[in-house]
């Protein structure tokens, strides 16, 4: 077994320092503050020196995004580890945990989940679209347990709009890979376009609701947003033949 060289350990430590500083700037000032110049100033080095570790700002932001996603997944995994082995219970706990995290980590949420294409963190995209990453995996593993162990109402593949089929087929392939690797006992043939469409709709409603709340974009003031969120989850549960409790 090979061991890291002293130079390798020093490089890894510097990379961690850079990302730790970038995360600090992100949390304290927002995504726009994460610049190579600002990081270099915080670390007492020159901005060009950072290019020895990251090819560009986008490269650094992508690594920062991965750090945030991994931390979110770790937090949620720790939370559901204390729950019974019930996919439905765990799936809705993940939904609630995601909302709670978003409301208490608004800058990180903005970077990972709300940066528009071509804007700050343009490489970020949607974390769930990268289903092979930690957050996507933990979300889909719980969904897989629901598919494998509960009698839910699955939409027919024939009901998927023709215009969406090509896009959904690509996502379907990723879903099959992750769910098979998560070893939840989901029959591969069950992951048809109807199930894929259901997954997209579920995520869109969850993500859309949380985004509206994080940015205060409800069309009316909401004095009890918790109740509205719980009602949305209950609606989702009823639509697929489950109950969120």
UniProtKB/TrEMBL annotation:
Keywords: DNA-binding, Transcription, Transcription regulation. GO terms for molecular function: DNA-binding transcription factor activity; transcription cis-regulatory region binding. It comes from Amycolatopsis eburnea. Residues 35-54 bind DNA. This is TetR/AcrR family transcriptional regulator. InterPro entries: Homeodomain-like_sf (IPR009057), HTH-type_TetR-like_transc_reg (IPR050109), HTH_TetR (IPR001647), MT1864/Rv1816-like_C (IPR025996), Tet_transcr_reg_TetR-rel_C_sf (IPR036271). Residues 12-72 form the HTH tetR-type domain. The lineage of its organism: Bacteria, Bacillati, Actinomycetota, Actinomycetes, Pseudonocardiales. It holds the Pfam family TetR_N.
């Amino acid at each position: 077994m090979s061991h890291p060289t002293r130079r390798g350990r020093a490089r890894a430590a510097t990379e961690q320092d850079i990302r730790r500083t970038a995360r600090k700037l992100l949390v304290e000032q927002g995504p726009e503050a994460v610049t190579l110049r600002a990081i270099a100033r915080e670390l007492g080095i020159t901005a060009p020196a950072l290019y020895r570790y990251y090819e560009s700002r986008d490269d650094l932001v992508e690594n920062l995004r991965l750090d945030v996603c991994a931390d979110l997944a770790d937090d949620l995994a720790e939370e559901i580890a204390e729950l019974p082995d019930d996919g439905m219970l765990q799936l809705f706990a993940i939904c609630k945990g995601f909302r709670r995290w978003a409301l208490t980590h608004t800058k990180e949420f903005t970077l990972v989940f709300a940066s528009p294409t071509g804007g700050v963190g343009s490489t970020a995209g949607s974390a769930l679209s990268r289903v092979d990453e930690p957050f996507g995996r933990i979300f889909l593993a719980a969904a897989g347990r629901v598919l494998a162990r509960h009698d839910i109402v699955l939409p027919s593949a024939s009901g998927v709009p023709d215009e969406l089929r090509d896009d959904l087929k690509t996502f379907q392939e990723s879903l099959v890979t992750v769910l098979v690797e998560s070893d939840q006992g989901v029959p591969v043939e069950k992951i048809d376009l109807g199930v894929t469409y259901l997954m997209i709709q579920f995520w869109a409603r969850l993500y859309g609701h949380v985004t509206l709340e994080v940015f205060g974009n409800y069309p009316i003031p909401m004095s009890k947003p918790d109740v509205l969120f719980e009602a949305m989850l209950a609606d989702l549960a009823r639509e697929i033949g489950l109950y969120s409790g």
